[in-house]
Amino acid sequence: MKFSLLQQSYMNRRSGSFRGSSAPLDSSPDNTIKSPASIFWLLLHGICCLISLVLGFRFSRLVFFFLFSTSTTTTLYVTTPFHPLSRTSAISNPLTNSANDLLVSNSTVSSGVVVGRHGIRIRPWPHPNPSEVIQAHQIIERVQREQRNQFGVKSPRSLIVVTPTYVRTFQTLHMTGVMHSLMLLPYDVVWIVVEAGGITNETELIIAKSGVKTLHIGFNQKMPNTWEGRHRLETKMRLRALRVIREEKMDGIVMFADDSNMHSMELFDEIQNVKWFGAVSVGILVHSGGADETLLAAAKVDKEAEENLPNSVVPVQGPACNASNKLAGWHTFNSLTYKGKSAVYIDDRATVLPRKLEWAGFVLNSRLLWKEAEDKPEWVKDMDSVGENIENPLALLKDPSKVEPLGSCGRQVLLWWLRVEARADSKFPPGWIIDPPLEITVPSKRTPWPDAPPELPPNEEKTINQEQTVKHSAKTRSPRSKRRSKRKHEAGSVETQVSAKHSEQN
Amino acid sequence: MFAAEIYMHRFLLSSLVRTLNPNEADWFYTPVYTTCDLMPTGLPLPFKSPRIMRSAIQLISSIWPYWNRTEGADHFFIVPHDFGACFHYQEETAIERGILPMLQRATLVQTFGQRNHVCLKDGSIIIPPYAPPQKMQTHLIPEKTPRSIFVYFRGLFYDVGNDPEGGYYARGARAAVWENFKNNPLFDISTEHPTTYYEDMQRAVFCLCPLGWAPWSPRLVEAVIFGCIPVIIADDIVLPFADAIPWEEIGVFVDEKDVPNLDTILTSMPPEVILRKQRLLANPSMKQAMLFPQPAQARDAFHQVLNGLARKLPHDKSVYLKPGEKILNWTAGPVGDLKPW
């Protein structure tokens, strides 16, 4: 019978307590339910049942939690009038459970760890403390330094980076990229910047922000407008830098960082392993001006491609190894597929092709260049005997088989070659500083473009992503068909901004 | 996690310490796979485990005389379930049942360890939970990858299925970790199951190993293998092979009541201490001791167990009972246990 079960459970609980309950319940088992106290308990029991039903959880546990502190274990004073309840039909179970709960907490008093419900401790302001965050970062910094000492490069040599550059629209963009890569290095870096057209303030301003030791050399020839000419001039500039290294007897590892290339941090760690002359694999990001769909698809990048598959969508230049990880040959750039479709002028909309083997993929020990060095190997030609028209530094070697392939034998692509340039007549604010500050924005309808779209409402804010699709029926051959000029707002003259993205299609 | 019983059996089958002559044996091993009784979901069901164990003991005691000779004092059993030989996953029920009466005299090799707890017998050997060695090997990343995560944890904070009100699971400690540090960028904690779990552990400085329903967790093993300093949040826990591995020196122990101050505790540790712990963790013998590789290698967990057993030898003469003497009460325990399996 339900009620007698209840009675007996009450007896159990009572007998489990130290102190007698204040409830005047008779302890004889055959007590009738007619006594007022038991009716009271029953009513209370019913109310608690209903509350449980409504709330949806075991109300009793919550009550126990509130009444009994969780850190003490001497919680055996059964003065509560509330009864453990259950929504199932087995009423005796939870009662014995609760009794056991209390009994259990009694028995584990020696362990100090209480079984049962605990509070979730939340501190008053559960947010990070800034000074602790700084501390944590210092700890991480120290751990990483230790890791580098243990597993990284032992006794790193200083790096000599040769970069040919010249003043143009995208110069800041490219140079900042290289500069930031160099600033992150934990090694000593000497950055030799050779500038075509002589030393200019603009370039000086850019490289002064780098914080690494820089050497700014002027080369008194203007950069020609064709890619062919540019490559040749860049070669001359690099040789000039190498000559400076020779004269100054600079010590370290020489690498060629063209300003528009992208270098991964692993590259700099890997080239520390070079002994005399090394080569890495270069991913060629050949991008077309946007017109040719097939070329686009072919050049679609999987920039993380580490394998040097023959049919990979990113062509890779670099050393090729045979099965025993020895240099067997070279992967070079196959320009046949692009025959007739490559860019000639620097601002062509066509594909810009690299040379067969780019300078950027080679690293040398600076001692190779010195006139007199102790253990300079005999398979190196003297720099003076090499002319000015060499294709790549392999011409410096008598024996090209001595080249060390780096990056797990050319399997890792550690840098990417890219050439992106703006139109030759594109204007940009000098030093990329807008002075005086912009005041008025004039709507583009003022500018008499031939196929101007319908009038736009004048607006005061800069609309940055306003894409003007300018329709041209130009073929890929004709130059000047792609607008890559930047927008600038100065009082009086306005140019539309055309974002130089591939997504813009005619 | 519970596969240790199977691998231990396999190891002993082909091990050099095994002898087929019972008269010269020091220890007797009875392979009983108590966690292999599975629910339809694949999780182990401990309800019948006492009966399984009991029936097994009855079998060996009736066929061979070696059990009755010592009432099991020179036998050992592997009980890697949540609360060891208490054979239940809920702590209250486990405590209520206590250790199976039949196993009162035997040596228990278990993963559970908590000081002053009913389910931890004196003289038990604590082993680490099983973690798959090959799987962890395949997920190793180069050691020079810089450790950039400060604190890492992946797992449940609230067990909504079994503890909908909160406050029971992990004695509220995991929930406290979540509530206090979910907005803290130093703490990379979530309930996701990333595929790069092992790789992420190798990129972290500290790995949290809080208690769950039971104080032990495979995270401890994973942290030691991957060189991440374990932060153990479990009051009174007894860690495996405590005699062979200096846990105080390689891990950080945080009381459950100090969880809200976890960030202060961890950031105030001097870097030299942290570097020292990492150096000790990098010790390959420590990693070996946590693993159960197949086939067994030198100094791995199997050998640590054998070491533990060897240390308890020779058996005290008093364990050998005089004929006719009986200590164990074969009918003790809940009535349901007495049913044969």
TrEMBL record, chain A:
Glycoprotein keyword on record: yes
Subcellular location: Golgi apparatus membrane
Documented EC number(s): 2.4.-.-
Keywords: Cell wall biogenesis/degradation, Glycoprotein, Golgi apparatus, Membrane, Signal-anchor, Transferase, Transmembrane, Transmembrane helix
A Pfam family per the record: Glyco_transf_43
Enzyme class: transferase
Transmembrane regions listed in the UniProt entry: 38-55, 62-79
Superkingdom assignment: Eukaryota
Membrane topology: Single-pass type II membrane protein
Annotated stretches, region: Disordered: 444-506
Segments of skewed composition (Basic residues): 472-489
Annotated InterPro entries: Glyco_trans_43, Nucleotide-diphossugar_trans
Protein family (similarity comment): Belongs to the glycosyltransferase 43 family.
Described function: Involved in the synthesis of glucuronoxylan hemicellulose in secondary cell walls.
Protein name, entry field: Glycosyltransferases
Protein source organism: Salix suchowensis
Automatic annotation (TrEMBL), chain B:
Transmembrane feature ranges: none
Topology within the bilayer: Single-pass type II membrane protein
Coiled coil: none
InterPro entries hit by this protein: Exostosin, Exostosin_GT47
Keyword DNA damage in annotation: no
Subcellular localization(s) per the UniProt record: Golgi apparatus membrane
Major place of residence: Golgi
Domain of life: Eukaryota
Keywords: Glycosyltransferase, Golgi apparatus, Signal-anchor, Transferase, Transmembrane
Exostosin GT47 domain residues: 1-269
Family label: Belongs to the glycosyltransferase 47 family.
Protein name: Exostosin GT47 domain-containing protein
Lineage: Eukaryota, Viridiplantae, Streptophyta, Embryophyta, Tracheophyta
